[in-house]
Amino acid sequence: MTGFRERPVRPGDRLRPAVRNSGSLLVDNIGELVTNCFGAGEGGPLGIRRNAALLVEDGVVAWVGSARDTPAADRRIDAEGAAVLPGFVDSHAHLVFAGDRAVEFAARMAGEPYTGGGIRTTVGATRAAPDDELRATVQRLRTEAMRQGTTTIEIKSGYGLTVADEARSLRIAAEFSEDTTFLGAHVVPAEYADRPDDYVGMVCGPMLAAAAPYARWIDVFCERGAFDVDHARAILACGQAVGLGVRVHANQLGPGPGVQLGVELGAASVDHCTHLSDADVEALAAQRVDCMCAEGGHTATVATLLPGAEFSTRSPYPDARRLLDAGVTVALATDCNPGSSYTSSMPFCIALAVREMRMTPAEAVWAATAGGAAALRRTDVGRLTRGARADLMILDAPSHLHLAYRPGVPLIRQVLHDGVPQCRP
Ligand SMILES: [Zn+2]
Fold first, then answer.
1. What span, in angstroms and rounded, lies between the C-alpha atoms of 159 and 164?
2. How many alpha carbons lie under 13 Å from residue 150 in its C-beta half-sphere?
3. N or C: the chain end with fewer CB closer than 10 Å?
4. How many angstroms does the Cα of residue 98 sit away from the middle of ligand 1?
5. Distance 335 CA to ligand 1 centre (A)
6. How far is the CA of 127 from the centre of ligand 1 (A)?
């Protein structure tokens, strides 16, 4: 387990409203409230309460109870019998980049395989882009995600791959998220192609030093064609030594050592997990930690599945059922990036997980909210119980089931972030 050091910057400031709505806000007449707290409702991991209401004070959930029994409040939102869920926690996204790769997508759909090599195309465009262009792209995608119910989003660097470009990518990311991740080890850039040891030395040295003030996490793409296990271990250990938490891109394109490396280093999450051995699953299942809301706690290292990537690369989906049946905690995230998964939509990922990965709708909704929070080691989001942040969505539907049952339909009626109503979609 890694403790996080104090940071010299306050990432996420841009996301906090300058002036919070003062006074209290009651969200009333909720037909189905997903609290994500086992034992808070009628049973099951979603902790569902019927005919509920919820009181927000100072951006935090101050009270949850029956709609027959509501306290007085300064303002009121009538949910009109609809379902209310915690905001989605998207724990894996690459939003700081320039350009797009639509042509590469079309070629893949025409039969070309995905190798990860296209990352270098985005690196070139990102290095050439001014700060304001990168910032505008993050803002656009952040807004797009919020409209689809995402109130917490992790943002990685990884398309700069120079000391200056990685540092500025994270500086910009930190304007939009508290969970920023240094991914200088995304690929070896072209100028270091024949001397990867030198690149790893730079990542661990000056690049980490420049990036760390703006980062909470460190991540490595541990895959054939990217970074081998020795390089990955060295880079992650350097990050841990300066107080960053560990995450790993692991076992996406084929079997490999990434998942077990992540478990060995106490990673909060190993992401992709598309090609797993029995030993990988056993390693993930072996270590559990307590959790205030999940019965029996959750696994210390979460398996974060990114079905948008398999969709967009026409690849076999990860076996979520195998992980869940082994007791491994699963998160769902978008992997939003211009190459292999250009979606910011958590509802889309839920629909894929249910249809293609045999998760139940309840498992998928939990994985996209509480699972994402576990993958970021956050206890203030991903649930709607007293003391949680008032990050929530009101659906245009009576039940969370509709997120998978009505794929592709804009079902998010309203989003509250820190208790502040966002623009309606
Ligand atoms: Zn990724």
1. 11
2. 32
3. N
4. 16
5. 5
6. 19
